[in-house]
Amino acid sequence: MLKGTFSLKSIGPAAILIALVILPSIIPRFYIYILAVIFVTALLAMSLNMVVGHGGMFQFHHGAFYGVGAYTVALMLTKTSLPMWMGFVAGPFMAAFAGLVIGVFCVRLNRLYFGMLQISLGSLLWAIAFRWYSFTGGDDGIHGIPLPSLISSSTGAYYFGLILLTICLIVMYLIFKSPFGATLQAIRDNPERCEAIGINVRRHQLIAIVIATFFAGIAGVLFVVVEGSVFPDLLFWVFSLEIFIMCLLGGWFTFAGPILGAAIMISLRTFVGIYTEYWTLILGIILILLIFFLPEGVWGYLLEKFGFQGKKSLEKERQ
Amino acid sequence: MEIGHTVTLAALGSQFLVGLSRAMILFVVTSGMSFVLGVLRVPNVAHGSLYMIGAFAAFSISHLFGGGSTGFWLALILSPFVVAAVSLIAERSLFCHLYEREHLMLLLFTFALMLILGDLVKMVWGADYRSIMAPEFFRGSVTLFNAPFPRYNLFLLVVGPLVAIGLWLFSNKTKIGKIARAAAVDREMVGAIGINVSWVFAFAFVLGCFLAGLGGALVSPTVSITIGMDHDIIMEAFLIVTIGGLGNMWGAMVGSLIFGITQSFGVLFLPQFAIVFPYLAVVIILIWRPTGMLKSVW
With B2 labelled, which of A121, A216, A238, B71 sits at a CA distance of 20 to 30 A? Predict the structure, then answer.
């Protein structure tokens, strides 16, 4: 039974993966680039959803860790002569370190205070990136980051992103299905009861933050590979809330929802942005429509509609 | 980064006053945000946008009346009402249907409102820099601590405490203020004794936004009015209400003072990193007292 559902469930992702491997040879370069951007953003949204959707924490400034990852790589590649792979490895670890430091203070607090404190600490990082001209390039950011020739072309970046995203998604899925993931979701649904049965709530939350920020750092590295530059907007709080909307759009309580959310948002921004300069207005309207009509997200809605039971009933109970 | 060679006691004093007058603007804005937080328990992300609308409305109104003294006073009185009207429309048409929902949804709604209002301002007023003049009486400066101090800032130093006293009297001495405070503590109970909680919330929301508009009108003669001022103020307002204690009006006052004064001293010592100082103060305070300086109302 378990074996059967597993193989059935893996047909969809496998088909999508094969399609994505073949796709670059048939579509124009611009679309390859857009897909690569979607990979980066999807990974970022997935990492955020680990703490927001599955952990129930108000991680309001996730973009800060994404930015830390991206800036670490960019600075190491431009300012030091260390081997390139070290920069790529350092990015996620620096992001996770920032996540640990900020997380230690945040997990002491509940809900809204958690979110507000995180916004203030993340904004401190933003202010540094924005103002420290001699080191981070200030509001111009860093451009023309030298990359290994293998991944500097758009197709190279595409495949690099696809491979990283696939690996990360598998790891995330294993974490999601592990006892740790289950504990985290239990904490989301009822922290008091978890505390009462002897789970160290704060430590679980902190570990979740560190893991999520590590993945955000990987997304940051990927961003540098795809764009070849960094700028302080990555750490700006409005961008963080945009990622939040992606998770909402796809579906908080689903595993794959944020990928769909990121794909929809990036596509909309790319194609609507051609016709109008008022993209944020459209984003706001989308968000209002979501809040009123589709709070469980597109993926959550589809899952419900086509009758995937099990996890859904639990969320109903929670509402 | 040479400290000391120019920093005299007089410079410190005058910079302190600059910080103080900045703190008054921040207080007018954040007291409104804090009031909404206290009653509705939602950080209104659109608060900064309403502040920006207040400033732009002040610009338009003062130009409508010829830009003179009358224009300025009318702008100062009318633009908060313009902002209140905008917020009332948003509240009654959409926001009020969400009160039964999860808090996160309320917060995300205000974020959506911020995005929409930001672009609407761009549509109506464009992306240019605007400015208005303070009336004749407030132009120029007086000498305090051997340094010139703008007269308009003295006016701000008077207005800030007046708003604080007014808001305190309102929430402690009037019936509607008391109901609003009661609804903050136990909304079911307030509903149970036959008070329409939805309208209480609407009132609190509109009052908070009114103060945002007042802040925007007050700041308009001292800065260049432009799109993007919403992002700056909302971040500061968020931090101030957090360090003050969520929903506590006097906390907003304490937070504003800390923020304004660290910012102005930062300009004195390390101009390039002046914006880092208030953030640093916030971090230190929150590590020391995670839930803010004063008691949060919930």
Answer: A121
State how many domains chain A has.
Answer: 1
Taking CB atoms and an 8 Å cutoff, what residues of chain A touch B246?
112-113, 116
Over the stretch A188-236, which tens digit does the pLDDT of each residue have?
888 889 888 888 888 999 999 999 999 999 999 999 888 888 888 888 8
Q: Establish if B128 belongs to a structural domain.
A: yes
Residue in chain B closest to A53 (alpha carbons) equals: B104
Compute the distance between CA of residue B229 and CA of residue B99 in angstroms, rounded to an integer. 29
A136: domain range?
29-236
Instruction: Indicate whether A51 belongs to any domain.
Output: yes
- CA distances B262 to A43, A112, B157, B269, Å, are 38, 25, 17, 10
Q: Is A82 part of any domain?
A: yes
Residue-wise pLDDT for B177-219, tens only, equals 888 888 877 878 888 888 888 888 898 899 999 999 999 999 8
CB contact under 8 A, A113 and B246: yes
Interface residue of A233, A239, A291, A293 to substitute, partner B, most B CBs within 10 Å: A291
Per-residue pLDDT at B228 exceeds 90:
no
CA dist A96 and B27 (Å) reads 36
- Tokens in use for B266? 């930062």
Q: Is residue A288 part of a domain?
A: no
- Cβ pair B231:A238 closer than 8 A: yes
The amino acid at A222: L
Q: Is A116 on the interface with B (CB under 8 A)?
A: yes
Q: Is B232 within 8 Å of chain A by CB?
A: no
What does residue B147 show for φ and ψ, rounded to 5 degrees? Answer: -135, 145
B77 lies in some domain: yes
Question: How close A247 comes to chain B (CA, Å)?
Answer: 12
Q: Residue A20 is which amino acid?
A: L
Residue A104, chain B, CB below 8 Å: the answer is: no
Q: Decide if A121 touches B, using CB distance below 8 A.
A: yes
Please write down the long-range contacts of A190-198, taking CB distance under 8 Å and 24 or more positions apart: A191/A56
Closest Cβ–Cβ partner in B109, B273, B279 for A120: B279
Judged by CB atoms within 8 Å, which residues 213-272 of A form the interface with B?
237-238, 241, 244-245, 248
Classify residue B137 as exposed, middle or buried by CB count within 10 Å of its CB (0-12, 13-18, 19+): exposed
Please check whether residue A307 lies inside any domain of the structure.
Answer: no
B139 phi and psi, to 5 degrees? -75, 165
Res B124 pLDDT > 50: yes
Could you list the residue range(s) of the whole structural domain that residue B204 is in?
29-227
Decide if A116 and B242 are in contact by the 8 Å CB cutoff: yes
C-beta contacts of A73-78 below 8 A and 24+ residues apart: A73/A145, A73/A220, A73/A221, A73/A224, A74/A142, A74/A145, A74/A224, A74/A229, A74/A230, A75/A135, A75/A136, A75/A142, A77/A145, A77/A146, A77/A147, A77/A224, A78/A142, A78/A145, A78/A146
Query: Can you tell me the distance from the alpha carbon of A87 to that of A77, in angstroms, rounded to the nearest whole number?
Result: 6
Would you say the pTM of this structure is higher than 0.95? no
Q: Could you tell me which residue, A5 or B184, shows the higher pLDDT?
A: B184
